[in-house]
Amino acid sequence: MLKKSPHSPAHLLLDQAVYFITSAIYQKRPLLKPETVKQHLLDTIQTCMTEKNWQLDHWVILDNHYHLMLTSKKGDDMPGIFRKIHGLSARFIQAQGPCELPVWWNYWDYCPRDEKDYFIRLNYLLNNPLKHGYVTNLADYPHSSFHSTLETLGRNALAKQFTQYSEYKNLRLEED
Asked: Do 25 and 41 contact (CB within 8 A), yes or no?
């Protein structure tokens, strides 16, 4: 377990583990709102995951935070991966126009304990644009892996997943 300061969360550094990650912009400013920033962040996340052989399974990017479901290769790589993601994206955000520093607040990781826990977190991630009022239909939000999940599973299977693991509606994250 890694904990650098009393103000940062402890991080589990596990090999071959599934992680649910949340990261937020400092003071919840909407610095991720522009389409170009969201796309740059996604491209950066995908590149950094590929470089370390981590698998990005699901993702959603909102105006002031993001959530990821991923599978680690080597857990010790996690701090460097997120330092790089946040460093590169912060420079890109700052190049779009002046903004106060810091850009990023932190990231929090959680390893689902079982299948139920995994699907509750996944449904929470997929439902996040609806939860925050960005859209009234998840298919209308382009900055999420919802579309590929829907295509892979099909409408009926995905609807069943949301029904079977409906506890995502009551999930409250400490970092929210």
From this structure: no
pLDDT in tens, 54-103: 999 999 999 999 999 999 999 999 999 999 999 999 999 999 988 888 99
> What CATH number has the domain spanning 18-170?
3.30.70.1290
Residue 61's H or E segment, with its range, is: strand 55-61
With CA atoms as reference, report the closest residue to 60 among 9, 124, 114.
124
Residues whose CB is less than 8 angstroms from the CB of residue 176 and which lie 6 or more positions away in sequence, other chains included: none
Q: How many C-beta neighbours within 10 Å does residue 16 have?
A: 9
Using DSSP's 3-state secondary structure scheme, residue 110 falls into strand
- Mode of pairing for the β-strands spanning 55-61 and 104-110: unpaired
Taking the C-alpha atoms of residue 13 and residue 78, their distance in angstroms, rounded to an integer, is: 7
